[in-house]
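Forum > Structural Biology > Help requests

Title: Can anyone predict the 3D structure of SDR family NAD(P)-dependent oxidoreductase?

Hi all, first post here. I have the sequence for SDR family NAD(P)-dependent oxidoreductase but no way to get a structure on my laptop. I'd be grateful if someone could post the structure tokens.
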Amino acid sequence: MIVLGSTSEVAQAFVEEALKQGEKFEKIYLITSNVETTERFARHIDVKFLQQAEVIELDLMKETDYSRFEHINSSLLFCATGYLGDGTEEGLYDNKNTEKIIDINYARLVPVLNYFVQKFESRRSGTIIGLSSVAGDRGRQSNFIYGSAKAAFTAYLSGLRNYLSDKKVHVLTVKPGFMATKMTEGLPLNPRLTASPNQAAEYIFKAHQKKRNVVYVLPIWGLIMLIIRCIPEFIFKKLKL
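Reply #1:
Sure, ran it for you. Structure tokens for SDR family NAD(P)-dependent oxidoreductase below:
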């Protein structure tokens, strides 16, 4: 199993959920920008599940050394890489903030994914799970830079699913709504619309088993975003969302 964004609470919860459900992996490759934190998680799953893991450093804001990945062979890839950034007006006009949001959520992430996609395609088997966001369903003033990057990532996963469908590789797009994670800590989230990492992991694993194509972690978000997408533009542009 390959995990991109291994410090993500959702990614770690998914790994544990898969192992609890009896999934067997020769090795789990934990690809991360934070080696120290990820090594603690690697030790945790070794003690708890006797699962061997290898931690590999990847900083998407630096040039990627693909030679680090040559030995990796896996049938399951879970991508939880993401960066929320500063969604305030101050952040909007901070080009470094904008570039980082776009690079980590899409521009520099896609080439890395494509590297592994080629391996999956040549083997003609496997599953790729990508965490996108409801923010990509429609641009809203509160987070449209982040949302635009996630919209691009959603489109990438959709095209990838289409491309790989006859090559026996399945692609699952996951759109979490509000998530109780480090990335959203301090934000005023509605608890009824917020999933914990463990809840998300359980739902994603079931969707993986059923070979679903696109899922919202809490189904209510599917309805919420349907309503938001259907609001006429002349009304929508005046809303504070």
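Strands lie at 2-4, 28-32, 53-57, 76-79, 127-131, 170-175, 178-179, 194-195, 214-216. The domain at 2-237 is CATH 3.40.50.720 (Rossmann fold).
Shout if anything looks off.
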